[in-house]
Every structure is written in structure tokens, then in C-alpha cells.
Design brief:
The complex is a heterodimer of chains A (112) and B (112). Chain A is mostly beta strands. Chain A contains no helices and eleven strands. Chain A is 0% helix and 55% strand. Chain A is globular. In chain B, the strands form three sheets. In chain B, strands 2, 5, 6, 7, 10, 11 and 12 form a seven-stranded mixed β-sheet that branches. A three-stranded antiparallel β-sheet of chain B has the order 3-9-8, with no helix packed on it. Chain B is an all-beta fold. Classes of the chains: A mainly beta (112), B mainly beta (112). The interface between A and B is medium-sized, with 23 and 23 residues.
């Protein structure tokens, strides 16, 4: 059984503060780790796809790191803004199989 | 921009009804997927298709069937809807071997 765990389940952050959350996944036969953002009433959208141990990706104020040996990824948001409020999903694929195994998500709420 | 369109945002059906959820993508993607999302759980794969008229069972296919007669359209069918099929249904597509999945906005189905 493949499990992807995300923590925390939900998070309230003051506008302007920085935050981070975690995705844990099985480290064997790793192929890729994905982060998606899902805003209310919209489609989930891909943020990052990471494949190499030690990978770091950045898009504006959002960045992600990857440790495939220990099976975790962190997502960081610097200087949170109201538009960052969303559920952040991670998923991983193994052995180049394009099926994604999904975590339950971290729901981020930015308080003005 | 890739566009994945799901025919309905909200549906209310009665137990025993036959339900069709339609999904259309406009980017000539080979792969299409149907997921359901329930509170506290990650997205769970119901069925996927990697080509016209091809389908593969995902993790939770029971009670569902699919149809892919044209490349751009992937339909999810609930033969006889039951209350435990009340859920958010998400359609996605990707290129062959592609890492990134592109999602529709979801259909929230209530079965009464």
C-alpha cells in the first residue's frame, strides 16, 4: 500500500507571515513528486514537478524542496498573501508510471 | 491554455438513477483520468484511459464505468447511483508519458 501523508491538515497564517508544510511519501522506486494548488471553485493546478534528490523549485514566493532518500518534500510560502489561500496537494509517481498517488492536502487559510 | 471542461458543477440525483459525468479536453491529450475526492482523503483514481476506446481500472472502479469514444471526451457512468457515491468528481488529462495532469473544476454530485 502506497501512502502519501501531508501535514498539517489545515493551517491558519497571518497575512505577511511565512509558512511551510510537509509531504511524506515512500522512498522506494521514486520517480517524481508533484505539488498542486487547488483554490476553491477552481481546478487544481500544477505548481512543481520534482524528480531529483535535492531538487529545489521556485515560483515567485513559493518554493519546494525534495529529499527522495528519506521520502519528504517541503513547500514554503514566503510573505503569505490572501490569494495564497488554497488547498495544497502533493502526489508522487513511482517507476515512471504516470499514475499519481495523492495526499489528502493541506488547507491554507491566510488571515488579513 | 489547456482546458478541461466538466459538464456540470453541481448535480443532485436519486438513488438508483443512471448518472453521466462528461469531461472534454481541448489539448489532444492521450491520457484522461477520473478521480473522486472525499474529505480527509487524497484524490482516488476511479478509471483512466490512455487512448480512444481504451480504459483501465483505477483504485476504486466498483460501481462505475467509463466510455472514451473520442479522444477529447471521457465519460464517467454511475450505472445505479448510491448514496456512498456522493462526492466531488474530478477529471484530468495529460500527454502520453506526461508528468503534469490538467484538471477540470470538478462536479459535486449528491445522491439522495
Amino acid at each position: 500500500i502506497l501512502n502519501v501523508e501531508q501535514s498539517p491538515q489545515s493551517l491558519h497564517v497571518q497575512e505577511g507571515d511565512s509558512t511551510n508544510f510537509t509531504c511524506s511519501f515512500p522512498s522506494s522506486n521514486f520517480y517524481a513528486l508533484h505539488w498542486y494548488r487547488w483554490e476553491t471553485a477552481k481546478s487544481p493546478e500544477a505548481l512543481f514537478v520534482m524528480t531529483l534528490n535535492g531538487d529545489e523549485k521556485k515560483k515567485g514566493r513559493i518554493s519546494a524542496t525534495l529529499n527522495t532518500k528519506e521520502g519528504y518534500s517541503y513547500l514554503y510560502i514566503k510573505g503569505s498573501q490572501p490569494e495564497d489561500s488554497a488547498t495544497y496537494l502533493c502526489a508522487f509517481t513511482r517507476d515512471s508510471n504516470y499514475q499519481l498517488i495523492w495526499g489528502a492536502g493541506t488547507k491554507l487559510i491566510i488571515k488579513p | 491554455d489547456v482546458k478541461v471542461t466538466q459538464s456540470s458543477r453541481y448535480l443532485v440525483k436519486r438513488t438508483g438513477e443512471k448518472v453521466f459525468l462528461e469531461c472534454v479536453q481541448d489539448m489532444d491529450h492521450e491520457n484522461m483520468f477520473w478521480y473522486r475526492q472525499d474529505p480527509g482523503l487524497g484524490l482516488r483514481l476511479i478509471y483512466f484511459s490512455y487512448d480512444v476506446k481504451m480504459k483501465e481500472k483505477g483504485d476504486i472502479p466498483e460501481g462505475y464505468s467509463v466510455s472514451r469514444e473520442k479522444k477529447e471526451r471521457f465519460s464517467l457512468i454511475l450505472e445505479s447511483a448510491s448514496t456512498n457515491q456522493t462526492s466531488m468528481y474530478l477529471c484530468a488529462s495529460s500527454t502520453q508519458g506526461g508528468n503534469i495532469q490538467y484538471f477540470g473544476a470538478g462536479t459535486r454530485l449528491s445522491v439522495l
